[in-house]
User: Fold this.
Amino acid sequence: MYDAIVVGSGIGGLTAAAVLARLGGKRVLVLERHIEPGGLTRSIRRDGVAFDTGVGHVGEMGDGQNMRKFVDAITDAKLEWLRLPHRYRQLKYPNFTFRVPSDMDEYEQQLLAAFPEESKAIRRYFKDITKVSRWARMRFTEFLVPKSMIPLIRALRHRRHKLSNISASDYLKAFKSPQLRALFHTQWGDYGYPPAHSVFLLHCLLANHYANGAWFPAGGSARVARTIERVIEAYGGAVRVGCEVASILIEDGRAVGAKVIDTRGPLPRLFECRAPVVISGAGAGITFHQLVPSDGSAGPAADEFRRSLGAAGMGYAGVTLLLRLRESPAILGMDGSDIWVHTDLDEADSGTYTRRLFSGIPSRCQISSPSLKAGERAQHAVEVMAYAPPTAFRPWEDDGDDAGYEALKKRIAQGLLRLAEDAVPGLTALTDHMELVTPLSPDFGPRSRGPITEPPAASPDYTDMRHGPLTPIPGLFLAGADAGSAGFVGALMGGVVAAAQVIGPKCVPMLHAGKLETLDARSPLTDLACDGATLPPNKHRARLIAKRKVSPQCWLLTLELEDALPSFIPGQFARLKVAAWEWRDYSIVSLRAGRMDLLVSTRTEGLGSEFAEAATEGTRTQVELPLGRFVLQESLGHRVFVATGSGIAPFVSMFDSMGDELAYSTLIYGARDHGHDLTRALTCPMPQRIVRCLSLGSGEGVFTGHVTDVLAQLQFDHTRTEFYLCGTVNMTADCTRLLRGRGASTIFVERY
Assistant:
């Protein structure tokens, strides 16, 4: 029995859980439908390179600032923040460029010097954004004070600020200079809603948020969730991934728990978990339209609340081009600041903008380098992001037109790269790999839960927060952006006000004071094994008992699980803790009697590679398992396994379980040369037919070339053959495209 259940592990949900744990001593269960925790703070990993597509930069993280105190409280001050360059944002337009400084007064003076004819409007603008943002933030106070003080807070705020409900576009019409209007309009990229459809109040909150510059988490945005997770676990709580909440349990009109679909294995499993408090960070619309029963058990007040949600708009969806580079983008002049590129000064015509984006001639994009911002990555990455309305990708959502969708992605990717090249010459030549991710990409989980960003839209009924944390159902609260505001800090404050409904008015004063116990005494947070801590289900301490180098760039690690004897289904993977806040996924080669073998490639030279190289017998860490749905399906008659490099790992356990069926199977394996051929280095059953493809080798029984060359000429009956693919993103995408073009319909893919 947990003290509270939190739906969603975005920054709002994690904040609520951690505050309940630290200030209330609560055992909290966080349920996350995605296989990775963190919501928009999680990273996308591609062949050893991390991309931080959800967090571009965060304001108010300087030492001593209130928001930094909140973050230090929920991370036990274990999350380090790196300040971005003083001029943290470059704005490029036709015929002029402006770099935004990390000081509001300096920003104002630079604008006055550049646009002297607009001096009166500029001074009024900076006064307005300060006044409106202060007025808006008082709304949080209403949820943080004793009930007796709420009338006073409302009186201090007055009923409504005169600028709270106009659109950003309408306010900015006061500027006569098209260049100056465009410069201010551009800020909508911080919250994902065009100026014509977003309230000026939201614009003010974000502008004021960056009054002292911007910061980025050291090591990358994924570290945010991991540091908060250990705080939650220190109090007996857990963050369970791959667990999708199907519905919130309502009994006698009160929230009492959740019905959950566990998708961590090959077959979904339904279970119930109960707690006296349920906090949803999934969004008000999703919570009441999808999770709260509509059969009347929640009461008429819930129906009325549900109807009121129709006025809330949805934000624009992010489309991001991921670029892996051979060298640091610093050699091209990038310095960790974001570059926002515009080919025109128009911000209002989003329909034209989307058509241009989809045609491969985008008129704007944002360019950033998460590897430069994070400060400690050996791999080099650049992201090129654009926005599209949430309905833009709907035609490709369920129509099965894979060829049309892939062609669209190719046009968008090439167009964004051309636009980025204009701003950063040499970027294309430095690019080693590129991939476009959209709201339909599997990295963002099931498609039915809305777009990447979901801030409030301008509407006659909107003031400054969409809903706040309160709902008409006792025991059910909202966290995240819907309880607070858009952006990282807005969603974080949504988590704070949600937790405050349980803890009471003492919540924020305690966070401000910062006088919390040091958790290292309760549960070590920084060592790999976390000795003394109570681990949640599915996490186990492990000790390295043997390691063997099976190729120049691959180790076979044997780990002994110290506190459990879990089972798995061949093909599933384990999550290995490779550094204090870093986990990496590796397919399970074997797991018997508490001993587990993992194949760890060192080709990418990342933290996982460093762990494999440096670990010695006796090194202790943690593993989370089993995870994954890449398992053997009922055979159609002939199985073809295709792998490159360490991608053979999940097949090894499959082969060991197949028995006589190996005689009717084929393995097509690709490697660089004989020294990298793992089929000869591993001792395990193998299919009767093996095609070894060496890109730099020859000899008896060897095909000189790539696995795609073999698949292009492979003879097979598409009605009786299924394919299992495991390898890099490029390899699995190329093979899938080729096989579908040749009529194959049964293809299962695992990529790394």
The domain at 638-751 is CATH 3.40.50.80 (Rossmann fold). The chain is about 30% helix and 25% strand. Residues 445-465 have pLDDT under 50 and may be disordered. The longest strand covers residues 539-551.
